Amino acid sequence: MIGRKRGLKLRKENRWFEHPNLWGLLIGSPSMMKSPAMSAVLGQLEALADNAAKAHSISFKAYEKDLELWKIRNKACEEVYKKTIKESLEDKLKLQPQASVKFHGEDCPIPPKKRRYKTNDSTTEKMGELLIENPQVLLLYRDEIAGWLNSFEKNGREGDRQFFLEGWSGKVSFDVDRIGRGSLHIPALCISILGSIQPGPLAQYVSSAVHGGCGDDGFIQRFQIIVWPDPKKTWELSTRCASPQIECSIQKSFEWLNLLSFDPEGNPILLLFTDDAQSLFDQWQETLEKRTRSGDLPSHLEAHLSKYKKLLPALCLILEHLSQSVKEMNPQTVTSVSLKAAIRWLDYFESHANRMYGSSANMVPKAANNLIERLRCGDIKEPFTARNVYHGKHWSGLSNPKQVEEVLEYLEEKNYLAGKAVKTPGRPTFKIGSIPRFLRRMYNVKGSKGP
Known about the structure:
The protein is built from 14 helices and 13 strands. By secondary structure, it is of the alpha/beta class. It has 2 domains: 3-29 and 116-231 and 249-361, no CATH class; 363-442, Arc Repressor Mutant, subunit A (Orthogonal Bundle). The strands form 4 sheets. Strands 4-5-8-3-9 form a 5-stranded parallel β-sheet, sandwiched between helices. α7 packs antiparallel against α8 (299-306) and α11 (363-377) packs across α13.
């Protein structure tokens, strides 16, 4: 709702400022009811989108009438122009007949712009067009975001990842050039993202970021509003309804924020900290910088925490605007009350981020136990090849060659599996099997109980 219309300038004497667009991720199993939770918070946005669609429908009908009238008047002017030119050409006394005749047609009516708040599925080119018409921000919402992440691997979509990476800050322009579509200039690329994902699909993306794969480009670290709740062990039927008064208050806040605008020149309005909030922010940044530069943190977590320098200002702007929207007032500064609340939110989000990155560390041992269980149940016959594990099986953590290779190396280090190259008429085949217990005792190999 706020988007690029507002920004927080972190210090008076420099140009550093941040917008409040954020990327959010809700993590949980299919039974966690993630979709109803997100639908509840998106309800206010949907209401505004419906009103905007109705208003656009009315204005577009008026535009169509104006366009028809324009065509008629323009046709009449064109006929008069042609007639005047013809008469001038026939009058040989005039030296420059064409120069004295002008076409007095009206400018074509401009179609009304449709106010957009979100999109669920869009190419980068189309999203660029939407952002030109809606320069404040655009929300990409995916109920299951794994499908969207997988789309980056499709042919012809290789540049999409970079497009969204640059849309995270909301402060840069972006140019798209295509032979078929021509050139597109987006003055401000500002994108928010919200979606949910299950722990299994998420693990491979986190693993790529943690272990320095192709995903180690700061993409996952940009999802800073991460929530991975613990499932409840008990269940109780709840007949409690949402408070109408609270829903009405929230809707009024959304409607008030919807009225925010840019400055007269179309630029963002930048707010400043109050003096006491500025002092508190300086202390917070000093602590963060020392922590991220100490060398005590893993590189992926260091990259994640370093982006809190955008998350904190974003939360400050949101909290300040929410508190002032109740009074139907536009905030002029960001107070220490909002800053302290934002810092508490950072502690909460960091705990969930640690859980997300920790899931990657447990991914290989978990997949290894899965493979051992498959061997014991006879789902794979020994000796086997790596392809026997991933081809057509779609087992958790064992769905592609790279994952299987990591698991096999792990089990070999734990002295549970051994491999041997077997000669064949073609290329040698690498066969793998479990090490029998008597061999472990004979060679005094540790780890007889497996991983």
